[in-house]
């Protein structure tokens, strides 16, 4: 993988950083989170115009067909600005699933609208007792003459309430299949709520939801493969976004230590604090390196090797995120836990990074299982 930005990638990164610095201030972010639940249509449209939402969508469907390297660059900048809009759950992961496993009709219907920001999708695969395991599915899809009938519950659907449709896993006989369920399907109920870091989750309840046969994504036996494909893309994007958030948080902490004075000199003059800031920088660099590993894994044809690379990256980045977040709060002293500063927002985001898309325990088990296979 080439670590140097191309001219086009540098321009994209610069335009995103400029947009975030000038139009996505922390005051704007917090106001948007309260007023719109983290989904501001104006910001979403601006991201679409800059090519963020259609970055990995094929050109034939209105996207830009960029690779994992460009996605890493974009997510790193979004992480620096702690952009709350659901780019990963509602654009990156659904687009990856439909591009690889969707029918031509599904691609024609959804991918152009995802790329332009007109419509959003979300993955609904977790259940109250699933413990991150996508194979643990109790939601059922009963075969009908003209389609399927969906029954069951999904929980913790990342930004599920703002989605125009969901990619839902359901047990179809002895296999797990994936279905595209539109929001207006009869028999669907949703409950929206806020998470600790200001993002949104939703619980979905499906009661005798009738779906046409065309709602099936891929084949009846490819549901888990399709879901894993989308989750791996999401984790790679998440690792890049967390690396960007750590990078910006270290800059904020450095500036604070240079400004805050104690005993007649700035805090940055104390060697013990310099060492702690250096440790944060080392952890950030490790996380960024593993973000590149996760991005590279998306093109790996060996499924076991890809799982090892992605899960290894997730565990390493989550550990670094906890360290950087906690150190930043401590180095800010009592101010670090107040709403007056943005440090707390970064700390909450970096803390939640561990549990989103599978926590450390789950990915350690996944890594070990891939080693055995």
UniProtKB/TrEMBL annotation:
Keyword GTP-binding included in the entry's annotation: no
Pfam family membership, one: Acyl-CoA_dh_1
Domain spans labelled Acyl-CoA oxidase/dehydrogenase middle: 122-209
Cofactor(s) this protein requires: FAD
Cited InterPro entries: Acyl-CoA_Oxase/DH_mid-dom (IPR006091), Acyl-CoA_Oxase/DH_mid-dom_sf (IPR046373), AcylCo_DH-like_C (IPR036250), AcylCo_DH/oxidase_C (IPR009075), AcylCoA_DH/ox_N (IPR013786), AcylCoA_DH/ox_N_sf (IPR037069), AcylCoA_DH/oxidase_NM_dom_sf (IPR009100)
Acyl-CoA dehydrogenase/oxidase N-terminal domain residues: 6-118
Protein name (Swiss-Prot/TrEMBL): Acyl-CoA dehydrogenase
Species this protein is from: Caballeronia temeraria
């Amino acid at each position: 993988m080439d670590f140097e930005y191309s001219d086009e990638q540098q321009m994209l990164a610069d335009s995103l950083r400029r947009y975030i610095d000038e139009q996505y201030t922390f005051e704007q972010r917090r106001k948007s989170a309260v007023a719109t639940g983290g989904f501001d249509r104006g910001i979403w449209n601006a991201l679409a115009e800059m090519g963020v939402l259609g970055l990995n969508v094929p050109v034939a469907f209105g996207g830009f067909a960029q690779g994992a390297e460009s996605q890493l660059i974009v997510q790193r900048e979004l992480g620096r600005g702690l952009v709350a809009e659901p780019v990963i759950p509602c654009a990156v992961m659904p687009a990856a699933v439909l591009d690889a496993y969707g029918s031509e009709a599904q691609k024609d219907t959804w991918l152009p609208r995802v790329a332009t920001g007109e419509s959003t999708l979300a993955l609904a695969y977790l259940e109250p007792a699933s413990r991150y395991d996508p194979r643990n599915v109790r939601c059922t899809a009963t075969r009908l003459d003209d389609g399927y009938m969906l029954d069951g519950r999904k929980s913790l659907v990342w930004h599920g309430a703002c989605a125009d449709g969901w990619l839902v896993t359901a047990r179809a006989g002895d296999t797990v299949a994936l279905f595209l369920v539109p929001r207006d399907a009869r028999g669907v109920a949703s409950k929206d709520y806020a998470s600790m870091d200001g993002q949104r989750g939703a619980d979905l309840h499906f009661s005798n939801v009738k779906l046409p046969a065309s709602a099936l994504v891929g084949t009846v036996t490819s549901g888990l493969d399709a879901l894993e494909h989308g989750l791996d893309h999401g984790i790679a994007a998440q690792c890049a976004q967390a690396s960007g958030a750590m990078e910006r948080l270290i800059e904020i902490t450095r500036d604070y230590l240079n400004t805050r004075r104690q005993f007649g000199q700035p805090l940055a003059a104390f060697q013990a604090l310099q060492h702690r800031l250096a440790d944060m920088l080392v952890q950030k660099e490790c996380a960024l390196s593993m973000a590149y590993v996760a991005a590279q894994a998306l093109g790996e044809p060996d499924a076991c090797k890809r799982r090892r690379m992605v899960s290894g990256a997730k565990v390493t980045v989550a550990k670094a995120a906890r360290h950087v977040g906690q150190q930043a709060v401590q180095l800010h002293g009592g101010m670090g836990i107040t709403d007056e500063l943005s440090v707390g927002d970064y700390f909450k985001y970096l803390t939640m990074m561990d549990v989103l898309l599978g926590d450390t325990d789950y990915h350690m088990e996944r890594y070990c299982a891939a080693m055995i296979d």
